[in-house]
């Protein structure tokens, strides 16, 4: 799983399956990458959290059967190299790719476009031609041994000096309530507002080290409903962080279980 520059994606042509996760009206009305298929965000996101009666295995996952239907209808198979994009710096596209991994798609075949549709459109061709995918069979099986961790594991990590629990939300959210001892790293701090893609890698690494998010520590990620941590997860994977844990339940589940929270003075 990595972050792919636009030039590389264009060079690959049909060798990679381009997936646009914006709403249909954006895909149809504004344009899209040539040959890209449309898999809107709400089609691979559960309507409610699993802890609140949702049908997915955990958190906001849609369930293996639903995800297989969505991807198969878009003509995507697990053998495909997939590059996903949105028009919001990649945060929604990252969620698709993480969902793919959690349902068994080989991570080395998953790529996040560096930037988004707006940045692509500056220098590369776009299209408004309808793409009619050939439906295929997408094999989706939830992997319980993947990067997902449960709340008890997160609680242990909070007391483990060899681990760092990272909150990827905005400052005001963190101030109002966060896991005790968590380090804040707003996912947007990793994004360059001009290029709309990842900041220079040296700058990102400096920021991570400054926050104590080192490659020799286990990194446990959370936000509210696990959307924003998807982007941070892919960035860290791209930068060579190997020991990553993904708390799918995130703050929503943590609060519902009545686990401790703390506020910043500002909150």
* CATH fold annotation of the largest domain: Oxidized Rhodanese, domain 1
- The number of distinct structural domains comes to 2
Q: What do we call the CATH homologous superfamily of the largest domain?
A: Rhodanese-like domain
The geometry reads as globular
Nearest-integer average pLDDT: 93
Instruction: Detail the poorly predicted runs.
Output: none
CATH uppermost class of the largest domain: Alpha Beta
Strand order of the largest sheet: 1-5-4-2-3
As a percent range, the share of helical residues equals 25-40%
Could you characterize the architecture of this molecule?
The protein is an alpha/beta fold. The protein has two domains: 2-123, Rhodanese-like domain (Oxidized Rhodanese, domain 1, 3-Layer(aba) Sandwich); 151-256, Rhodanese-like domain (Oxidized Rhodanese, domain 1), CATH 3.40.250. The chain has helices spanning 6-12, 24-29, 64-73, 91-102, 117-123, 151-158, 171-176, 201-210, 228-238, 250-256; strands spanning 2-4, 17-20, 37-38, 82-85, 110-113, 163-167, 183-184, 218-222, 244-246. The strands form two sheets. Strands 1-5-4-2-3 form a five-stranded parallel β-sheet. Helix 4 packs across helix 9.
